[in-house]
Amino acid sequence: MTKRISLLGATGSIGIQTLDIIKEHPNQFQLVAFSAGRNITETRKILSEFTVEVVSVFLEEDARQLQADFPKVQVFFGEEGLFQVAAHTNADVLVNAVLGSVGLRPTLEAIKKGITIAIANKETLVTAGHLVMQAAKEHNVPILPVDSEHSALFQAMNGEKKSEISKLIITASGGSFRDRTREELKGVTVKDALNHPNWSMGAKITIDSATMMNKGLEVIEAHVLFNTSYDDIEVLLHRESIIHSMIEFHDTSVIAQLGTPDMRVPIQYALSYPNRFERPNAKRLNLAEIGKLHFEEMDYKRYHALKLAIDAGRAGGTMTTVLNAANEAAVALFLEEKISFLTIDELIERAMDVHVNISSPDLETILHVDAETRKAVQNMLK
To answer: What pLDDT was estimated at residue 130?
Structure first.
């Protein structure tokens, strides 16, 4: 039976690789709806390659032109367009691959419609994980992880008893600056930060990887997805990105998921679950060729953003919303070359320090705190 796929963020790194998987398995997957933001050239290419029913873009004028050029497709724009794609009634699975907390409300809408969620947008779970998981439980909707680390944990847990798990071990490559001290990060450029040693990703995620905020968001996401205490989640520096994550059991056994650094593997697993489909043209893991794997303890003074994320996670409530919103705003300022690399951490910490935490916030509160935090970070520059 063919699974019908809706895709938020089709023109981003994860979105493009999701389309690759759909093209590789035309009998198993069908793209029925997607959102594409501002990249209209890529949007037109996707519309030419796939027979979709719904598409959404950011601007109204782009939507009008696309509607004229593709009259058989329903074209929407803005936030309403994201809802139309996410909650498309003909979809079996929603792949949430947009960047930032903009993916939150569309995901909640899809859950209400009973659509399975393949989540690549970690900010949704960081910002309002308790609301997402509560809604998923109420509507009996699976939340399937697409991040390589969480997919690894999900796979390692298959068939195991949660009560017998001792801890989750999330691996981290160390990002673009893993061989530099914190002192040596003064004056690094945007170009330097975007040069990731292992993975090909979008700009925002690559910067998050360089600060290690990406790993901090993943720790919070693991806490939310697997209902695991922060005391039982460990981060381990692993330069090769071959072991994507591990689980240690009470009897000291450790199960690891290994593979080449290729996001198409966890994307396909989320789409094909509970089955596994072939990837005949993909590179196979050759451990003899790799020879050695390296591991180091995480230095939380060196990677201050990771510590901030774990602190926010332990605080809970709206503190994780503040963490995520401040990070998104600060990373945008760095990419615009308005602040230095180390200032990213400073702005996040300042936003957290002044925030009065609200426990168990509802959606309206979360959206308000998110918007206010972004304004506050912008105002810090003044």
So the answer is: 95
The CATH number for 3-145, chosen from 1.20.140.10, 3.40.1190.20, 3.40.50.720, 2.160.20.10, is: 3.40.50.720
In Å, what is the CA distance from 65 to each residue of 31, 77, 113, 168? 22, 12, 30, 49
**7: enclosing H helix or E strand:** strand 3-8
- Segment 371-376 shows an average pLDDT of 97
In this structure, which amino acid lies at residue 130? Answer: H
- Can you read off the two tokens belonging to residue 5? 């796929």
Taking alpha carbons only, the member of 139, 133, 132 closest to residue 115 is 139
The total number of residues written for the chain in this structure: 382
239-266 pLDDT per residue, tens = 999 999 999 999 999 999 999 999 999 9
Among all chains, which residue has been given the structure tokens 């960081």? 126
Separation of alpha carbons 117 and 141, rounded Å = 7
194-208 b/e (C-beta count within 10 Å ≥ 16 → b): bebbbbebbbbbbbb
- The values of phi and psi at residue 200, to 5°, are -105, 110
Over residues 21-46, the pLDDT tens digits come to 999 999 999 999 999 989 999 999 99
Tens digits of residue pLDDT in 160-203: 999 999 999 999 998 778 889 899 989 888 888 887 666 556 78
Contact assessment for residue 345 and residue 211, using Cβ atoms and an 8 Å cutoff:
yes
- Cβ-in-10-Å burial (0-12, 13-18, 19+) of 368 comes to middle
Three-state secondary structure readout of 70-88: CCCCEEEEHHHHHHHHHCC
Long-range contacts of 240-244 (CB under 8 A, 24+ apart): 240/173, 240/198, 240/290, 240/293, 240/294, 241/171, 241/173, 241/198, 241/199, 242/285, 242/287, 242/290, 242/293, 243/152, 243/171, 243/293, 244/148, 244/149, 244/151, 244/152, 244/171
Q: Parse the chain into domains and list their residue ranges.
A: 3-145, 150-262+293-315
pTM over 0.90: yes
Q: Which of 80, 83, 88, 81 is nearest to 66 (CA)?
A: 81
